[in-house]
Structures are given as C-alpha cells and as structure tokens.
Amino acid sequence: MKYARLRVHHTAETRHPMHAFEMAHDRIDSAELRHWNTVLDETNTFVFRVRGDPDPFRAKLESRPSTVEYSLTPVSDGVFHCCVRERATETDEEFIGAVARGSLVVLPPIRFNPDGTTDLTVAGPAADVSAAVESLPDGMRASVRSVGPYHRRAGPAASRLTDRQRSVVAAAVERGYYDSPRACTVSDVAAEFDIAPGTAAEHLRKAEAAVMRHALDRA
After folding, report:
1. In what order do the strands lie in the sheet with 28-38?
2. CA-to-CA distance for 25 and 21, rounded, in angstroms?
3. Which of 1-5, 118-122, 208-212, 213-217 has the lowest mean pLDDT?
C-alpha cells in the first residue's frame, strides 16, 4: 500500500469556481476541504475550513445555481467552517473518478493554494496511485510531491526514523544538542558513533524532516 502527495495544476476552465473566487477575493485568506461525501443523487457534500470573512463567502454560495444548501459556523480566531451541498459538474465527476478509483482513498485535507493549484494525498495500491496521476481529466495534471509506503504516514513520527537516525537523535538530545543554548555540536554527536560530522548532520536533518512532515500531516 502506497501514499502519494500530489499537487494538481488546473487550467482556468477546470478550476472549481469557489477556488477561483477564493484566489481573487482579498477577504478570503485560505481554504481547505476537510470532509467530502458523494451522494447518489448527483450532488456532493463538502465541509470546508476557511480563514477569512464569511460574508463574501456566503454571498458567493448564494449566487451559485449549483448550490443546493449550506450552513456556516461562527467565526473563531478568523476561521469558520462551511458545510455545503452542491450539484456535481462533469468535471467534478471526472476528477472524483480519477482520484477515488479502485481501492484508492483520498486523505483529507485537500488544500486550495493561492496560485490555483490543489494539494491532496491519496493512499492505496501502487497501481491505483499511478493510474490516478495518469488519468486526470483534460485541463488538469498532477506533480508528485512525495510517495512512499503508507505505514510511514500512519504511525507516530518516531516510527518513521531508521534505527540509525533514532540512535543519533537520542544522542543529540541526551548531550544537549537541542538545548538553548546548545550544549554540544554536531561533531560531538558524530564522535559518539565514530562517524563524520557531515554524516551525523545528515542523520539529524532527515530525522527532523520526518518529524516536521508528520507534524504538518497531523495538523
């Protein structure tokens, strides 16, 4: 089982109208799709997390003929949530068919970026992951940001480290490398394992990157 973090590039015609609206409106900072339910009556129901002013967002929803119903939560710390049910377009159905094909699962959130691209993560058999990248509708293309075994995403951050990385990080923590101010240097950590400072630094860098990716995924 594999996961792949994808960035989908859209033409203006295939970009969702709400995404285009968010890009253009200076009172909407960001939006991401948290939950997604495809109903059998040719509608989709979404829950969005939006940072910005709900008034223009509400006005846009009300003006769209495809909006069936919606509700917004009160704003908290500049953020509100929107649950909206809308009629699915042909482009919606083609996109869903590509990224939810076979045994493939879309892992929330789906992020709508200010440059018009969309970031999402899919998980499933390797063949389905590859097929999703290759079978997007016309006007969309995907670039793969990262890919790997799904279990690396599923467990705690420590489970993503190799045994060597975990040992080097443990030594760095014990000797005070992460204290402020630092109580030791990379060379001191390297001496613990009789390895070059550059090798120790590489172990630490990769371990830190794994921990930070995990923190962002959980967030």
Report:
1. 67-72, 79-87, 43-52, 28-38, 105-112, 118-124, 2-10, 140-149
2. 6
3. 213-217
**CB count, 10 Å around CB of 123?**
18
**Do residues 57 and 82 touch, judged by C-beta distance below 8 A?**
yes
Q: Give the count of alpha carbons within 13 A of 94, CB side only.
A: 14
Task: Write down the residue that tokens 């790997």 correspond to.
Answer: 148
- Give the other-Cβ count within 10 Å of 42's Cβ: 11
**Whether the Cβ atoms of residue 126 and residue 150 lie closer than 8 Å to each other:** no
* CB 48 within 8 Å of CB 34: yes
166: left (phi over 0), alpha (psi -120 to 50) or beta: alpha
In 3D space, the residue among 176, 171, 207 whose CA is nearest the CA of residue 191 turns out to be 171
Task: Kindly report the pTM of this predicted structure.
Answer: 0.66
- Residue 217 confidence (pLDDT): 62
At the topology level, CATH places domain 155-218 in Arc Repressor Mutant, subunit A (1.10.10)
Q: How far apart are CA 210 and CA 123, in angstroms?
A: 18
For 53, counting Cβ atoms within 10 Å of its Cβ (0-12 exposed, 13-18 middle, 19+ buried), the class is: middle
Residue 155 pLDDT grade (very low, low, confident, very high; cuts 50, 70, 90): very low
Q: Measuring CA to CA, how many Å separate 2 from each of 134, 163, 179, 209? A: 16, 22, 36, 19
